[in-house]
Amino acid sequence: MTIDVRPATDFEEVRTLLGPKSPGANVCWCLSHRIPSKLNNELRGPARGEYVAELCHEQPPPGVLAMDGDEPVGWAAVAPRSATSFARSHRIPRIDGLPVWCVWCVRVRPGYRKRGISHALIAGAVEFARANGAPAIEAYPLDSGDAKVDLTMAYAGIRKNFERAGFTHAADTTSVLAGHPRVLMRLDLR
Q1: Global pTM?
Q2: HSE on the CB side for 89, CA within 13 Å?
Q3: Rounded CA separation 41/58 (Å)
Q4: Which helix (H) or strand (E) segment is 11 a member of?
Q5: Phi, psi dihedral angles at 42 (to 5 degrees)
Q6: CA–CA distance from 78 to each of 25, 61, 104, 149, 156 (Å)?
Q7: 105: closest CA among 64, 163, 73?
Q8: What is the largest CA-CA distance in the chain?
Q9: Which of 23, 43, 60, 77 is the most buried (most CB within 10 A)?
Q10: Over the stretch 158-170, which tens digit does the pLDDT of each residue have?
């Protein structure tokens, strides 16, 4: 298996990874941290997918996809922190005035897990941010130690995976997800 990570410009590929089985379902579509909460609550059913389709045509697109040939197998949301709800977060601190980017969702399709795809996605998110002029990139993963993490809540990533990619602990947070504290990890791209 050869994994290629590229910008998420093809909506049908993004739909494969983020879309619901039922078109009318109200799934996240990785919008919860990307758009203001009022808009997030107003977008229902198919309107959520339509919004993401528009994002796929913007520059920069909303993230990166891991591809195994023509098959989309993974997704990572990455954008300037200023364009996300993390810019206003009281639980995840801003550590300085640097216009950082962040990666906040890493998802690998069932059947493709435990093959290193999340590592490829993190590396791809770093390169995507660097190519778009980011001076640094942050992540807010779970600090779970050796404890097992429920896969539905592992979307934020795991600290050791970001450490493996060169990120370092920059700050503690007051955010907790699935019973595990989240930490602010950063990688300088300058």
Answers
A1: 0.95
A2: 20
A3: 22
A4: helix 11-18
A5: -80, -35
A6: 24, 9, 7, 22, 12
A7: 64
A8: 43
A9: 77
A10: 999 999 999 999 9
Phi, psi of 147 (to 5 degrees): -70, 145
* β partners of residue 180: 177
**Three-class SS of residue 156?**
helix
Q: What is the pLDDT of residue 65?
A: 98
Dist CA 122 CA 129 (whole Å)? 11
Exposure string of 120-138, with b = 16+ CB inside 10 Å and e = fewer, is bbbbbbbbbbbeeebebbb
| Cβ density class 167-181: b for 16+ within 10 Å, e for less | beebeebebebbebe
Element (H, E) at 106: strand 101-108
State mean pLDDT over 72-77: 98
Residue 144 and residue 166 in contact, taking contact as beta carbons nearer than 8 Å: no
**What is d(CA 190, CA 74) in angstroms, rounded to the nearest whole number?**
27
pLDDT in tens, 124-171: 999 999 999 999 999 999 998 888 888 778 899 999 999 999 999 999
Question: Which tokens belong to 116?
Answer: 């290193």
